[in-house]
Amino acid sequence: MTVLQNKDRIQTTHVGSLWRPKDLLDMMKAREIGVGFDPAAFEARTKTAVAECVQQQVAAGLDIISDGEQSKVGFFSYVRERLGGLEARPEKKYKLWPLETNAYPEYYEGYLKQAMMGNTVAKLVPLVCVAPITYANESTLKRDIANLKAATQGLDVKGVFMPSIAPSGVGFNEYYKTEEEYFHAVGAAMRTEYKAILDAGFLLQIDDPFLTDIYADPDLDAAGMDRRAAMYVESINASIKGLPEERIRFHTCYGINEGPRVFDAGIDKYIQHMLRINVGGYSFEAANVRHEHEYHIWEKVKLAPGKVLIPGMLNHSSNIVEHPELIAERLIRFADRVGRENVIASADCGFCSQAAYHPEVHPTVVWTKFKALREGAEIASKKLWK
């Protein structure tokens, strides 16, 4: 058995980000606009917010918990506080799901203004690499580790994890000669964060939703997609070389929004790349109805010994609470194909990847979803461990 594998029942977890309290969001917003920000008050509230978030996860019955990314304005934009060599470029725009937005312009025009981008505490400002990438500021990393340690001290949980962005999520390159050189430079810098999280006794989760984005990029042909995916994988593997892979999990998904998602790539497009990442567990979407059928891939693809699947059982963009019996059925499908010890119940993605006043799924619904996840895992466990 590895650290991640089940012993006598299906374990439960989630992807990391959860709703931040309103007063903490107000402080984040004050920091972003540079008016009325009190650093000491923010640090104190962040610590209590992590403690509250941890207690709620435990009360919901989750086994492997996180800090909810309470201190972060976004799951990847947080690195602007930590990495040197990056410059904010507000005039540069992210291309969000171009095939989707071009196919459904009326829907996305309203959606992006209201449900997704209209209530975040900070705008998504692209970062551009203009100098050598360094890990220049460890103070916020040390704070996050200390807060999570304090919040989980003495708790009876199976594990504690902390998410961290993959090299592919850190800005655009204007300094290094090649994209490959850039990704490896970012990975070398992020290794500081990866190692610190592991040294603290936590599990490390590397977030890379950008891996799936490659296969819906209209500017790449099939060969170009595979080349870029290989670069992502190689940069991750280089950044974690020598670190305990059985305590590292990888997460990818298809976006944090509710939408048609008809241009999402199937898992068959990227699975060969994902499984080349030297980690102990793989977290991916499986509850999204565009992808629920994809569990059949594991009838053809074999999971390496000691590896674990962490498929989503909860949709992160719907306020409908999944029934525990359905969750149990989903878990058993995977367990029948890769082994009961190798399936951990999770969500498709984070429930508040960008700090927002009105996240896609209401916080009260999130906790109900997590309770359903635990109930579903218990039902599945009784059937799998008779």
- Reading the helices and strands in chain order gives HHEEHHEHEEHEHHEHEEHEH
Overall form: globular
Domain tally: 1
The averaged pLDDT comes out at 95
Essential attributes:
386 residues; alpha/beta; three-stranded mixed beta sheet
Description:
- It is a single chain.
- The chain is α/β, with parallel strands linked by helices and 386 residues long.
- It has eleven helices and ten strands.
- It has one domain: Alpha-Beta Barrel (TIM Barrel), CATH 3.20.20.210.
- The strands form two sheets. The chain has a seven-stranded parallel sheet.
- It starts with 21 loop residues before the first helix and ends with a helix.
Q: What is the gist of this entry?
A:
By secondary structure, the protein is of the alpha/beta class. The protein has helices at residues 22-33, 39-60, 98-103, 105-116, 139-152, 179-199, 210-213, 222-239, 267-274, 324-338, 363-384, and strands at residues 64-65, 83-88, 127-135, 159-165, 172-173, 203-207, 248-251, 281-284, 308-314, 346-347.
How is the topology of this model organized?
Blueprint: H1 22-33, H2 39-60, E1 64-65, E2 83-88, H3 98-103, H4 105-116, E3 127-135, H5 139-152, E4 159-165, E5 172-173, H6 179-199, E6 203-207, H7 210-213, H8 222-239, E7 248-251, H9 267-274, E8 281-284, E9 308-314, H10 324-338, E10 346-347, H11 363-384
Parallel strand pairs: 1-4, 3-5, 4-6, 6-7, 7-8, 8-9, 9-10
Antiparallel strand pairs: 2-3
Helix pairs in contact: 1-2, 2-5, 6-8, 10-11
